[in-house]
Amino acid sequence: MTLKEVIKGTQKKKTENTAGFKNVFAHFVWKTISYFVTWPLVNTKVTPNQVSFVSLLAPIIGTGIFMVADTVPLKILAVVFFAIWAVLDDVDGGIARLKQQFSKNGDLWDSAAGYVALSLMFVGMGFAAFDETDPNTVYYVVLGGLGGILALYPRLLMHFKYHGEDNVVNDKTSYGPIKLIVFNVISPDGFMIPFMFVGVIFGLEWFFTIGYTALYFLACVYSTWLLFRE
Q1: Neighbours of 171 (CB within 10 A)
Q2: Cα–Cα distance between 150 and 216 in angstroms, integer?
Q3: What pLDDT is stored for residue 150 in this prediction?
Q4: What does the pLDDT look like over 154-175, one tens digit per residue?
């Protein structure tokens, strides 16, 4: 199978791809990289669920590195594992389409990995902002944990309300310019990971933790208001 065939065969149908390329970074960066990972794997016995399992482990490993990292290179390595999750998040679906290997738990594995990655981004960066020489920085660890909860809450609420209606939960076609910008900024496979790289390179982990926790708090309040208003 050629790379061109892989690219063509991994494209989602229009009915599936409700976000389209509205998630700019995911579409042009992670998706592009995923083609080159999918290409060699499609001719092996690797299954989509196995890829999803590895993608689940990647952010856990990244967070573990964050917990012990005391140098910039180690922190960069931790972020790389989150980037691995973002790439594999496309690879599992690509392999499933190319091999026609679909399972009832496939989406469950994929969602589990996504939720773990999102919540641990906050936890990991909270630990990255912690400085043993400054006891006050322990608040960043606490804030990171809070951010992880805030990130999951509106998603769980939406899935509960629209249970069985994934098209409603995932539909981004009606988003205006402002919503699209916010969507790109707060999406775990959007600009969050690039901002993590910037944060650890320039020592701004604290800014990432405070900023994203605040953003998700506002998103949490807004989405909750919308859900209860309907």
Answers
A1: 13
A2: 6
A3: 93
A4: 888 777 776 655 555 556 666 7
Q: Which of 140, 52, 154, 156 is nearest to 94 (CA)?
A: 52
Three-point CA angle 156, 157, 158, nearest 5°: 90
Radius of gyration of the chain (CA): 18
- Tell me the C-alpha distance between 209 and 226, whole Å: 26
Residue 74 β-bridge partners: none
Give the number of other Cβ atoms within 10 Å of residue 131's Cβ.
14
8 Å CB contact between 151 and 114: no
Q: What are phi and psi of 142, to 5 degrees?
A: -65, -45
Looking at residue 13, its pLDDT comes to: 63
Look at the pTM and tell me if it is higher than 0.85.
yes
Which stretches of the chain drop beneath a pLDDT of 70?
13-21, 162-174, 230
Amino acid at 188: P
Nearest to 26 by CA among 109, 98, 85: 85
* CB contact at 8 A, 208 and 47: no
